[in-house]
Amino acid sequence: MSESGLEQLRAEFDGALAAAGTAADLERLSALWIGREGKLRRLTEGLGALPPEEKKARGKAINELKLAITAAFEARGRALSAAPRGPAPDAIDVTLPGERPRLGRRHPIYSTMEELRDVFGRLGFECVYGPEIETTYYNFEALNIPLDHPAAEPFDTWYLDEPDGGKRPHRALLRSHTSPAQMHVMESRVPPIRVVVPGKVFRTDPADASHLPVFHQIEGLYVDEGVTFADLKGVLSIANKALFGAKTETRFRPSYFPFTEPSAEVDVSCLLCGGTGCPACKGSGWIEILGCGMVHPRVLEFAKIDPARYSGFAFGMGVDRIAMLKLGVTDIRHFVRSHPLFLGQW
Ligand code: DAH
Q: Choosing a second label site near 104 at 20 to 30 A (CA), which of 63, 189, 321, 340?
């Protein structure tokens, strides 16, 4: 190879080195040029056959090329490892629209729960919480529900232990309503008591459009001297207007719950048709939203509150149902499917 051949080789190497942008590129280049099978090595192959003078000159030129190439290679390696990683500053087009991060937000059930808590808070009710794991005593007996009552049957209730033939007085279970919290509050405070208790409740119901095995209730309790049914009607009528709109009418229908006497179920005028009748209210103009009543004297006695001196009212409503009504959701299962398009609406 002539002198100009070596120069051409040098130019070729310089071009390849300039194009090497990463450590991997450099490694590949090193194998191609400097390695055992590299181009430089092959240059020396024909040297032995040359006459001594020529061999000397040629050997020197090859050696110089080798040194120059190795030095350039090492310099490039140092430059690469010192260069900042990531794209060059001018590689970012700041005029492109950014990608908005998807923000989390409160679940609609929890927003509804907060709204309920706020409405009753303005009416003077303090928000407290009760345990989700209860016993048969608090979930049933102290609420005047005998254990042979249908509601106490294993079919509805999520028991956490097996019956033991009466050795243990009370079985553990997941609370099937928030009413047992009434007892905890009455046991730990003296009247006047005015609380709401929001939270999760559990029943062995299979999920369908209107049931979930885990759902939410909010319990209300007011115990003091001289509390009457009129107070109950006043509080719930005002709360319903705050929750569903100023035009909302409230209707009390006689009903039965073991822990209240008298008991009532409460309907509000249909949110969609205003009371004239539509598919949402099945033509009746009314939608049922809660159960309530005057705290049964026996329940007060269980809590060691004298029913001759004190009276009270209680109510319990399904939060999921209220959320469905307010948001126009027709299948309760949407709430637990967590689809971003569904949950992202509110
Ligand atoms: N605990 C009842 C249920 O889950 C609802 C209820 C009815 C609560 C009447 C009350 C009440 O406090 O007074 O079906």
A: 321
Chain centroid offset of residue 299 CA: 37
What's the one-letter identity of residue 181?
Answer: A
Let me know whether 16 and 120 are in one domain.
no
CATH number at residue 167: 3.30.930.10
Rounded Cα distance, 19 and 80, in Å: 12
Domain containing residue 277: 108-342
Task: Quote the pLDDT of residue 263.
Answer: 98
> Does residue 123 lie in a domain region?
yes
* Dist CA 160 CA 172 (whole Å): 5
- Ligand 1 site residues, Cβ closer than 6 angstroms: 177, 179, 219, 257, 260, 291-293, 314-316
Could you read off the pLDDT of 20-54 as tens digits, one per residue?
877 778 888 888 888 777 777 777 777 778 888 88
In a domain, 288, yes or no: yes
Cα(292) to centroid of ligand 1, in Å? 6
**Residue range 289-311: average pLDDT?**
98
Is the model's pLDDT at 204 over the cut of 70? yes
Question: Of the candidates 26, 48, 82, which is a domain's last residue?
Answer: 82
